[in-house]
Amino acid sequence: MNNNRLKRFFIFLTIPFCIVGVIAFAWWYFGLTLNLTNSFPIGIYQINTKTKWNKGDLVVACPPNNNKFKINNHNYLGKGHCPSGTYPLLKKIGAVPGDLVEVKNLVYINGAQQKNSNVYMWNNFTKMHPCYGKHIIAPGMIWIMSDYNEKSFDSRYFCEVPAANVIGKAKLLLEF
Asked: What is the pLDDT of residues 9-65, one digit of tens each?
């Protein structure tokens, strides 16, 4: 009888670990990520690292490791594996090399006002230092923004991002 109890106990412990392991492997294998920020709908996204991305695509990218980012981050992003020491961001590519970005109280790309592009000097009780002025996007750089949430932490506050920082193209699979 004691032997049966031990077997049941072992099975009781093994099955949940196996289930968690299978889920973790599938999560990694299919390139899934969970977005819990307000920049885009909260949900599960699939990241395709093999597909070429274009202007207007939703991507996962590491923020730049520049002074503007460091000044404005205020620990919004947790510690992660990006060169900036943070987690990557889920944003749309708003501008590519050659595009003209103008940051005033709103953001304009090639003269067109961008949706939900308000620029704030204060975020809650924290002073922000936006990238005011005109920016011609240089070769090898991109401008990433959220058009879903006007208070998103994006290129409005840390300027251009190296195109090499794009991890992959994102696709919403399940919205919560």
From this structure: 888 888 888 999 988 888 888 999 999 999 999 999 999 999 899 999 999 999 999
Which one-letter amino acid corresponds to residue 21?
Answer: G
User: For residues 159 and 142, what is the distance between their CA atoms, to the nearest angstrom?
Assistant: 9
Smallest CA-to-CA distance from 26 within 165, 169, 173 is with 173
Residue 12 CA to its chain's centroid (Å) = 38
My answer on whether 44 and 109 are in the same domain is: yes
Does residue 141 contact residue 162 with C-beta atoms inside 8 Å? yes
CA distances from 16 to 21, 109, 132, 148 (A): 8, 51, 52, 38
Average pLDDT over residues 66-76: 87
Same domain, 75 and 8: no
Structural domains counted in the chain: 2
Would you state the pLDDT for residue 75? 82
Same domain, 91 and 158: yes
The Cα 138–Cα 82 span in angstroms is 22
Do 133 and 87 fall into the same domain?
yes
Assess whether 42 and 22 both reside in one domain. Answer: no
What whole-number distance in Å separates Cα of residue 112 and Cα of residue 104?
Answer: 13
* Containing structural domain, residue 85: 33-175
